Amino acid sequence: MIVQPKIKGFICTTAHPLGCARNVQDQIDHVIQKGPVTGGPRKVLVIGASAGFGLASRIVAGFGCRAATYGVYFEKPAEDNRTASAGWYNTAAFEKAARANGLYAKSVCGDAFSDKIKRHVIKDIKKDLGQVDMVIYSLASPRRKHPKTGEIFKSTLKSIQGAYSNKSFDFDKNEVIQVSLRQATTDEIIDTVMVMGGDDWQMWIELLKAQNLLAPGCLAVAYSYIGPEVTQPIYRQGTIGAAKDHLETTARTLDKLMAQVGGRAVVSVNKALVTQASSAIPFISLYIVLLLKQMKARGIDEGCIEQMDRLFREKLFSGRLLQDIPVDDEGRVRVDDLEMLPDVQAAVKEIWKNVTTENVLRHGDVEGYNKEFLKLFGFGLPGVNYDEDVEIDVKIH
Description:
Layout lengths: L6 E2 L2 E2 L4 H18 L8 E5 L4 H14 L2 E6 L12 H15 L4 E5 L5 H15 L2 E6 L5 E3 L6 E3 L9 E7 L4 E7 L4 H11 L2 H12 L3 E11 L14 H21 L4 E6 L6 H4 L4 H14 L6 H13 L16 E2 L7 H13 L5 H4 L2 H10 L22
Parallel strand pairs: 3-4, 3-6, 4-5, 6-11, 11-12, 12-13
Antiparallel strand pairs: 1-2, 7-8, 9-10
């Protein structure tokens, strides 16, 4: 099948198997070129392992730390004339590369929120690994079925402090547009927290501890975002922000639990990046377009793999003790430091005031954003012939 990108809104409905494999290999090569991570983990569980920060974390753990990695993901295989999802191809490519390099790599595809998948993971860890010394929680989902009550929660993208209107970017039309969102209801806030907050992360850690699967000195890490003043009403002051607040509060609770095995639990605040999730958030897309231009001009832009590689090497490990992990006043690890440099933020803030459809191509990196977006689905990678007939039914070991 000849596979080309088919984009609907903020989603690409096709993925290219060879392009995804190339993207994964490029990330592996980046980590290998940096050399080994000093004092890194040896057995790592990654919950949400097929794309974005979760995939990049698994790559750094595997190829930077030489760790055995177990991934949990929810993706779709190819069916009839429909390609598999990008995360399916990413996982297949990672595990193939890992095994070729003598690394343990195993995954389960299913609903990470469910008790069924948790039981499956526990069984495999007991059988294959015994214990894990790092747990990475990088789950992104629009909905969650509670494993105990069966209740369905759906996340929303709304402001909490009243109706909100601001600039955004329409990539279909290449236009700066005005987007208005109504205030979230109490139920919508609760639902978003239940999907994107720390409730499921806590369930995982408590269950792993109860089964004696957390090795001495185990480190648990989840990912968050803060962002600039211009996105606060929809992000940290919105429904997502309420979920992130809950996630960070959960980290403080779990830190005490992890201390019982001599370990820690922390949240890493990462940089704004072009991801499937961020593309769906109003206002964030325009901010990233402007941010990319400023950070590239200064030579400090980072993608997922650069962020996670720096997190492992400079913040979490490099031979340091767990209690010496650098955190801010709220106990968070910060790898959004380059994004939040005062001169970068001042430049973006000033441009935001006057950005329009007429000048956005001059002030923002729209082309770079589009390239990064397509790369998420395996398109636009050098060395891949996109006019070639490819096998879309890729099996995962």
